[in-house]
Amino acid sequence: MPNDAISEQPRYSEPEEGRSAHIAERKGLKGEVFRPVLVLGGSEGARDICAMLAQHNIPVIYSLAGVTERPRLPAGDIAVRIGGFGGTSGLKRYLSEHAVAAVIDATHPFATGMQARVAKACADLSLPIARLHRLPWRPKRGDRWIEVAHIGAAAKALPKSARVFAALGARGLRDLVARGDLHLTARMLTRPDWPLPPRWRILLSGPRKTVAEEAALLSSLRAEWLICRNAGGQAGRYRLKAARLLNLPVVMIRQPPPVVDVPRFFHVPALLAWVLRRIGQG
User: Fold this and answer.
1) Percent of the chain beyond pLDDT 70?
2) pTM recorded for the entire structure
3) What is the distance in angstroms between the CA of the first residue and the CA of the last residue of the chain?
4) How confident is the model at residue 150 (pLDDT cuts 50, 70, 90)?
5) 279 within 8 A of 59, measured Cβ to Cβ
6) Is-contact 184 164, C-beta < 8 A?
């Protein structure tokens, strides 16, 4: 392992042995004929909607970009594909070849390029599409947030040579590379494939499971600042609560506004009801 990587590996759920990749039409619980639903994963809730669709005997294709080497996969008889589609044209071809009935965009809130491409492909094919979206976090009493619009402003907000804990993802971290003066530890699931500044190191890990664990980690790293994107969801809440507990300032990159006009759902049951209404007759 490289010298700047901390030897802590993430934990994943292994796919079930003999998982089926069958994506043909199926009959629902009431005899409805369902064609496949494509779920574009990458955020919390994506696995939950896959599992709930499978419980209704709806064929599901769970698609991941392939950034994480050993991703957690949904439970149930669900087809999994990993990798890109080859742009909008490749995605349209895939949707047509697999007779996809509807698309659920559950990608990361900051994956605006992908959101625009999938919405364009579905519009061209007149396919139903909905987005499973995470509401952004809101500052609470005791938080010391500095909210900024983009990573460039975030880079300017950090003091020279500060000790920083970063939760930005590979792309966000790379946009910060000009700040090589920072003593920065970045927590990620996969090591970047580009050179790091000498003072930076990577913590190969997922979020801690409790506030106390997150606080202990930040204390052990002697972190003075936290920088992250406002992705919403549950996974990052303990990190923010730990920063509040330790009175750490947080540079928070605002969640981008919606880039496409598609139905948005913030809860899985409501999204499931939408899918059932839209494809119930196959």
Assistant:
1) 85
2) 0.82
3) 50
4) very high
5) no
6) yes
